[in-house]
Amino acid sequence: MRKILLLASMVVLLVAQVAWGHDPRVLAKKFTHSFSIEGAGKLTLAYTSLHWNQPSYDAVKKNEQQLQRMNSTLWRKIGTLDSEFDVVMGGVQVPKGSYNLGINFDANDNFKLVLWTAGGKDLLIPLETQADSPPVTYLTFDLRPVSETDTFVIEGRSGKFRCSAEVKVPYLAPHEHPEAGQNKSH
Q1: Does residue 21 belong to any structural domain of this protein?
Q2: How far is CA 127 from CA 5, 47, 106, 110, 186, in A?
Q3: Among 3, 11, 61, 113, which residue's Cβ finds the most Cβ atoms within 10 Å?
């Protein structure tokens, strides 16, 4: 009887540990933002909202080896970017397609978005960074229009940082329309 009671207690502890290890209240949440352009398609950004840890961030910045490890592992793939049309992000041409999404930073708080495919080379998107924002506990992105018809902005926030890049959609660039009755080939 003692063995059965001991075994049952161990099973209960094991189940409790598994449940605590997967507590949805403490795990990063997954978010998706997208927009559609009639005639061109959809652009979708999906990511895991990582928790900001200032002491860890400060420690990693002081150790080049840890910084490289952080950029190549934990922050290397936090989500995906899928676009059915070409875009230019932060001055970098991004052909339509599916990309893994990551974040890269250096000891001087210069942040970049990293877009990559399994067989391709990394596209590094430079971000304009401000370090004077009210603290944000979890990574968040926003993708929104601005004043120009063909221009949007992607903004990421985490900790005290606010990083952004202009997103141009060549498909929406200003262009001439033929007058009524004129052939498009003229």
Answers
A1: no
A2: 59, 17, 12, 7, 41
A3: 113
Tens-digit pLDDT profile for residues 122-151: 999 999 999 998 999 999 999 999 999 999
Report the number of distinct structural domains present in the chain. 1
Residue 169 burial by Cβ neighbours in a 10 Å radius (0-12, 13-18, 19+): buried
Q: Domain range for residue 75? A: 26-172
Query: Is residue 140 situated within a structural domain?
Result: yes
Report if residue 168 sits inside a domain. yes
CA dihedral 141, 45, 154, 96 (to 10 degrees): 170
Q: Is residue 11 part of a domain?
A: no
pTM of the model: 0.78
The predicted-structure confidence for 55-90, as pLDDT tens digits, reads as follows 999 999 999 999 999 888 888 999 999 999 999 999
